[in-house]
Amino acid sequence: MPKPAKHVFVCVQSRPPGHPRGSCGEKGCADVYNTFLNEFQSRNLWGRFSLTNTGCLGPCNLGPSVLVYPEGVMYAGVKPADVAALIEEHLLLNQPVERLRAPAAVWG
Amino acid sequence: MPKPAKHVFVCVQSRPPGHPRGSCGEKGCADVYNTFLNEFQSRNLWGRFSLTNTGCLGPCNLGPSVLVYPEGVMYAGVKPADVAALIEEHLLLNQPVERLRAPAAVWG
């Protein structure tokens, strides 16, 4: 496997109902991760790009969280419908999707 | 949480005994991750650096795998005793630990 041009990390952390931190799990991160998996497969992105599920990335209350390296861009509140834009703009055109970025107070 | 100067990703993937890909789990990645956690705590590294557990990072047969961004340096066969060097050399001095790097054929 070559070193990828971009590496997408998707939080898949779950916590018990009522946990004070909440979690990306309760906010639908599994659907986001699965959408990325399907898009990577259908667009044949493996090799140029990598995709990894993770534990907690930090901003649980604003999840689902998606983090893209090497730029270190944190996205907040990502929905399955946002995945195509993240792939087409950030991964393929190297243009981070500003409307989805986490606030600077969270990751700045 | 500020954007970290370095972000350490530690594979904690397990697979059933006998699975053809093996896993970092069977090679002791939990001890590696826990050692990182303890070192982050005792050296007060939170804030400057981030640490995240992950699913599969790819080179399962050479695990435990540790990946550090933004450089995108993949380390292979990491043992708990290697964690101090990774912190002191790569995180604090910005000098990747060459002896622990995954072969270029794996991540190059």
Describe this structure in words.
Chain A is α+β, with helices and mostly antiparallel strands and 108 residues long. Chain A has a single domain (6-107), classed as Glutaredoxin. Helix content of chain A is 23%, strand content 18%. Chain A has 2 helices and 4 strands, in the order βαβββα. Chain A has helices at residues 29-42, 83-93; strands spanning 6-11, 49-54, 66-69, 73-75. Chain A has a 4-stranded mixed β-sheet, covered by helices on one side. The longest helix of chain A is centred in the first third of the chain and has 14 residues, at 29-42. The first copy, chain A, starts with 5 loop residues before the first strand and ends in a 15-residue tail after the last helix. The interface between A and B is medium-sized, with 25 and 25 residues.
How would you summarize this macromolecular structure in one to three sentences?
The structure is a homodimer of 108-residue chains. The first copy, chain A, has 108 residues and is of the alpha+beta class.
* Assembly type: homodimer
Q: What separation lies between the terminal Cα atoms of chain A?
A: 31 Å
* Uncertain parts of chain A: none
* Overall tally of structural domains of chain A: 1
Q: For the largest interface in this structure, which chains are involved and how many residues does each contribute?
A: A-B, 25 and 25 residues
Outline of chain A, from the CA principal axes? globular
**SSE class of chain A:** alpha+beta
Mean pLDDT of chain A: 96
CATH superfamily of chain A: Glutaredoxin
Please list the strands of the largest sheet of chain A in the order they lie side by side: 2-1-3-4
Which value, in Å, is the CA radius of gyration of chain A? 13 Å
Helix content of chain A: 10-25%
How much strand content do the residues of chain A show?
A: 15-25%
